[in-house]
Amino acid sequence: MKVEAALERGLHELALGMPAQAREQLLTYLALLQKWNRTYNLTAIRDPVMMVSHHLLDSLAAVAELPPGPLADVGAGAGLPGIPIAIAEPHRAVTLNDASEKKSAFLRQAAIELKLANVRVHAGRVEEWRPDPAFKVVICRGFAALADFISACRHLLTRGGVLAAMKGVYPRDELTRLPPGCNCADVRRLRVPLLDAERHLVLCRLSA
Predict the structure, then answer these.
(1) Distance CA 194, CA 170 (A)
(2) Contact at 8 Å (CB) between 32 and 5?
(3) If we measure between CA atoms, which residue out of 41, 67, 72 comes closest to residue 139?
(4) Residue 190 above 70 pLDDT?
(5) I want to staple 137 with a disulfide (CB 3.0 to 4.6 A). Which of 5, 56, 71, 198 is the partner?
(6) Which residues make beta-bridge pairs with 182?
(7) What is the mean pLDDT of residues 35-47?
(8) C-alpha to C-alpha distance for 84 and 130, rounded to whole angstroms
(9) Are residues 208 and 177 in contact, defined by beta-carbon separation less than 8 angstroms?
(10) Residue 181 to residues 73, 128, 152, 204, 207: CA-CA distances in angstroms?
(11) Which ranges in the chain belong to alpha helices (H)?
(12) pLDDT digits (tens, 9 = 90+) for 125-157
């Protein structure tokens, strides 16, 4: 299967009605990822069709489950899931965060080349970040164990906001080791087209 066909099939199965420009942005992002990966080691996946399923569609599967409002992608790395979300939702403000200057340089270049006016990049350790205003949604994909994610990022949330952790199999053990004042009972199973693997989204809300 070719990259374009894999993307079209995936978007159809996710029922994401994205315009042609957004589809082109996703393909351009994939090409950038391949180009920069030779030097920056952004992903272990080299096959472009696997990048569609494991990166693009995996990220986009969360879009329908996220509440509205400004979003921060912490430990963004290569820009996943933040860049695909920003492309799918051009009216949502998205801030990409990574502690690595090299990865942050890639994120800035990607935002410029993809003409993503809704994307900003913040380089630095998340624990030391004090954004103003704070975010409605803080998302991570493979950032850390659930308890560590909550402890490191809860200060980034505005009142009524949601911490969204993208996980593989149902994180039963992690859900038993949560810090106080956080409810993570809202766990949603995600179906990712072309990917034969379990995916879950854990939505955590802080106590008032």
Answers:
(1) 19
(2) no
(3) 72
(4) yes
(5) 71
(6) 206
(7) 82
(8) 25
(9) no
(10) 22, 21, 14, 10, 5
(11) 3-13, 20-40, 48-51, 58-60, 82-88, 101-113, 146-153, 172-175
(12) 999 999 999 999 999 998 789 999 999 999 999
Amino acid at 166: M
pLDDT at 208: 63
Q: Looking at the predicted structure, is the pLDDT value of residue 188 above 70?
A: yes
Residue 195, classified by CB atoms within 10 Å of its CB into exposed (0-12), middle (13-18) or buried (19+), is middle
Spell out a b/e string for 42-75, using b for 16 or more CB atoms within 10 Å of the CB, else e.
bbebeeebebbbbbbbbbbbbeeebeeebbbbbb
User: CA 23 to CA 72: how far, in whole Å?
Assistant: 22
The span from the CA of 72 to the CA of 74, in Å, is 6
Q: Which pair of tokens denotes residue 105? A: 């340089």
Please give the average per-residue pLDDT across 34-50, as a whole number: 83
DSSP-derived pairing of the beta strands 157-167 and 119-123: unpaired
d(CA 142, CA 136): 20
Where is average pLDDT lowest: 19-28, 47-56, 59-68, 180-189? 47-56
Domains of the chain as residue ranges with CATH = 58-206 (3.40.50.150)
CB 84 within 8 A of CB 59: yes
Give percent of the chain with pLDDT exceeding 70: 100
Identify the bridge partners of residue 199 per DSSP, sorted by sequence position.
190
